[in-house]
Specification:
heterodimer, A: 109 residues, five-stranded antiparallel sheet, 61% strand, globular, B: 113 residues, mainly beta, seven-stranded mixed sheet, four-stranded antiparallel sheet
């Protein structure tokens, strides 16, 4: 069983909709990362957070340490937001990031 | 602009041949990583290096080798011992291991025929 579970696996939305992608993890962590992977394969780091909430433009990431859960929200979604969104965690005693399988988001015009 | 350069983007090799994937960074990051991505799976760590001339095996190191002779460079060799080498390979770096954000390269898609 993967230590990081993302939901949904696939998500299709209409332009302008509010998007939520969820990430649950099973171990204590020191940091959680949200990444964006475009069809070409390159990955961009969106957020790194260990508590609370971060916002960048239309993207918002939240984390609840007690619940072992994080969400990535996209407001006023746009077709250019279409990508795979990946959650990854760094465990408190681990030497490595553990990745979720990703959520494929498609935003239709 | 600083970043990570992976080359080539696409690579084809015959079965049984060794192949080396290039990863160069100009971010002055100490730590560098190689990940493998297969369809439907999360990224898996192959090797990582915290400092020049030092590297550690990740979860799936068998059939791979690396070197870290320079801070900027962390090449990955896929050897003939790797049973299923066709995959997407991503290189990443961070300021220090387990600290700071990660910067990823654009990846190399290796196809072995």
């Amino acid at each position: 069983k993967n230590e990081v579970e993302q939901s949904p696996q696939n998500l299709t939305a209409q332009e302008g909709e509010f998007i939520t992608i969820n990430c649950s993890y099973s171990v204590g962590i020191s940091a959680l990362h949200w990444l964006q992977q475009h069809p070409g394969g390159g990955i961009v780091s969106l957020f790194m957070l260990s508590s609370g909430k971060k916002k960048h433009g239309r993207l918002i990431a939240t984390i609840n340490i007690q619940e072992k859960h994080s969400s990535l929200h996209i407001t006023a979604s746009h077709p250019r937001d279409s990508a795979v969104y990946i959650c990854a965690v760094m465990g408190g005693g681990s030497e490595k990031l553990v990745f979720g399988k990703g959520t494929k988001l498609t935003v239709n015009p | 602009d600083g970043g990570i350069t992976q080359s080539p983007k696409y690579l084809f090799r015959k079965e049984g041949q060794n192949v080396t994937l290039s990863c160069e960074q100009n971010l002055n990051h100490d730590a560098m990583y190689w990940y493998r991505q297969d369809p439907g799976q999360g990224l898996r760590l192959i090797y990582y290096s915290q400092i020049v001339n030092d590297f550690q095996k990740g979860d799936i190191a068998e059939g791979y080798s690396v070197s870290r002779e320079k801070k900027e460079s962390f090449p990955l060799t896929v050897t003939s011992a790797q049973k299923n080498p066709t995959a997407f390979y991503l290189c990443a770096s961070s300021i220090q291991h387990r600290q700071g954000g990660y910067t990823f390269g654009s990846g190399t898609r290796l196809t072995v025929v």
